[in-house]
Amino acid sequence: MTVGRIALGVEYCGTSFHGWQSQANGGTVQDAVESALREIAGRTVGVICAGRTDAGVHASHQVAHFDAPVERPLTAWVRGVNSHLPDGVAVRWAQPVAEDFHARFSARGRRYRYLLLNRPQRAGLWHGRVGWFHGPLDLAVMQDACGRLLGEHDFSAFRAAGCQAKTPVKTLWRAEVQQYGSMLVFDFEASAFLHHMVRNLVGTLVYIGKGAQQPGWIDELLQMRDRKLAAPTFSPDGLYFRGPIYEPHWGLPDPDDDFLDGMLK
User: Fold this and answer.
1) Domain limits at 122?
2) Choice among 31, 54, 67, 254 that is catalytic
3) What is the pLDDT of residues 112-168, one digit of tens each?
4) For residue range 186-244, what is the model confidence (pLDDT) as tens digits?
5) What CATH number does residue 99 fall under?
6) Which of 30, 55, 56, 224 is deepest in the core (most CB within 10 A)?
7) Does residue 259 fall inside a structural domain?
8) Do 87 and 129 share a structural domain?
9) CATH number of the domain to which 173 belongs
């Protein structure tokens, strides 16, 4: 028996976790969240997230839902749960939702950001939280290449071998790269993403930025649909899941990760 469905907004640094999805040996964000919820609910609670992240990948606005087995004030699902969570993961908000809301299937899109430190020296302060490339990169040609990714395409060239998506055809609404000093910021929004798709896109854009390929290489890769022809998968360190996109009628908070912008400017 449940007393209602609750949606949670969760942020985490993925450096010390083995990804989101629960595993037999533990150490995942889902394991940590479910354990903390159990302390508040007094019984086992299962959570479903909007987008599973790999080991080392971060989230500024993960959304998950669970069916509460007991009545608790919303503060208990936030401050109470946070008191039982390990460092690096925190619940930001909790909100009742309709029984037909599903964190994953109700989302009409998702957002990702990749932070890439572009300087000769590796990261110190940003260790584990940014990707890194030591050589100079041409911002203009990478921006040209990003524009070629927009729209509906077969993204097989950027799909991990173990990807379980039913189709490689996705619609990319946003593909941008901006520069803030020595930091390059890649932003992607799409109807859905394939496994490792963003990290594979970033790796390919870096190849173009360093002059190993021209922007038109993107067009060739999309046409050829062969993962072996594209660049290697880039590090998970700089990847942030910025949250799912829901229709307004669900009434959920919008992603609020402006701190990332503020730290860069």
Assistant:
1) 109-242
2) 54
3) 999 999 999 999 999 999 999 999 999 999 999 999 999 999 999 999 988 889 999
4) 999 999 999 999 999 999 999 999 999 999 999 999 999 999 999 999 999 999 999 99
5) 3.30.70.580
6) 30
7) no
8) no
9) 3.30.70.660
Instruction: Read off the tokens for 213.
Output: 């390929």
Residues 82 and 9: beta-carbon distance below 8 Å? no
d(CA 54, CA 20): 7
pTM value is 0.94
User: What's the gap between Cα 231 and its chain centre?
Assistant: 20
Closest CA to 235 of 123, 155, 88: 123
Please indicate, yes or no, if residue 250 is contained in any of the structural domains. Answer: no
Last residue of one domain, picked from the residues 81, 106, 131: 106
- 156 plus 130 within the same structural domain: yes
36 shares a domain with 117: no
**Is there a catalytic annotation at residue 54?**
yes
Same domain, 60 and 142: no
Count: domains in the chain: 2
Look at residues 264, 144, 153 and name the one whose alpha carbon lies nearest to residue 204. 144
